[in-house]
């Protein structure tokens, strides 16, 4: 990863490996429970100062959908979102946007994002979030099994005319 670029991409540009990895960590933080974020922060063990750039605040965002997945866009409704922004001792700035109204979780996720950006804490943050990734994968597999149990394969059904 010596030649990795940490520059910003334009809209529609492919994400660099660093950006894709950060997005994955931010997604794990957004999916984590408050207890999981507490555990992750304790496991990382960061004791330095955390400056709140934007205290957690709650607002609404418009959720858009598409008919059939590729049809015209339409406004589906509004969702409550909480966001936060923090800066840690090394100058790294962390952000979070979470569905719901949990200000504590939003701040915790922003701190973990900032810590991930600090190379000294990156591996510790990734290790601390592995249980969240494992839980999400287990939930995905459970949903896939439930959906597979109701699947009907019409091509293998035998007609009674043989």
UniProtKB/TrEMBL annotation:
Entry annotated with the keyword Coiled coil: no
Key words of the record: Lyase
One record GO biological process: organic phosphonate transport
InterPro entries: Phosphonate_metab_PhnG (IPR009609)
Signal peptide from the UniProt entry: none
Species lineage: Bacteria, Pseudomonadati, Pseudomonadota, Alphaproteobacteria, Acetobacterales
Segments passing through the bilayer: none
Tagged with keyword RNA-binding: no
Superkingdom: Bacteria
Protein name, entry field: Phosphonate C-P lyase system protein PhnG
Pfam families to which the protein is assigned, alphabetical: PhnG
Molecular-function annotations in GO: lyase activity
